[in-house]
Description:
Largest sheet: 2 strands, antiparallel
Shape: elongated
Number of strands: 6
Order of helices and strands: HEEEEHEEHHHH
Distance between the termini: 51 Å
CATH architecture of the largest domain: Alpha-Beta Complex
Strand content: 5-15%
CATH topology of the largest domain: Homing Intron 3 (I-Ppo) Encoded Endonuclease, Chain A
CATH class of the largest domain: Alpha Beta
Strand order of the largest sheet: 1-2
Structural class: alpha+beta
Amino acid sequence: MFRQSTVKRFWSKVDKSKDCWNWVACKDKDGYGVFNVNPQRKYEKAHRFVYELEIGKILDGKIICHHCDNPSCVNPSHLYLGTYKSNAKDRQKRNRGRNQNGTKNHMAVLNWEKVRKIRAMWQSGNYTQKAIADYFNVSRGCVTGIIYNVNWKEQ
Length: 155
């Protein structure tokens, strides 16, 4: 299916020293390995390439998912065939992905200490929501969400 030289080149870019076999060459913005399969510049995700190499054809409408949640892992035993829907459910169940709340969100400007201070300032009755928002350099809507436990819910 693949030329032996391509397979050899692929495995030369993999670190097998741990349980997750990590791709150590080029990666995309999400951390998935990217592999140039042939001279016509056909790039493929490394985990998809190794799935086809070691397990079999990827069926139409299916995607390759990771049991290990490590996008750069190419260990075939960590990969399984799924769908976009099953992958989204898995991502939600494991509390991963782009829609993270609180300090898990890479865009968060607040932390739990500041959130508790916002609530304390509001409960004191000495501050308006706008004053609190200005103090923490966030929107008034953000403060409202925190005060009414819409955002930053205590676990």
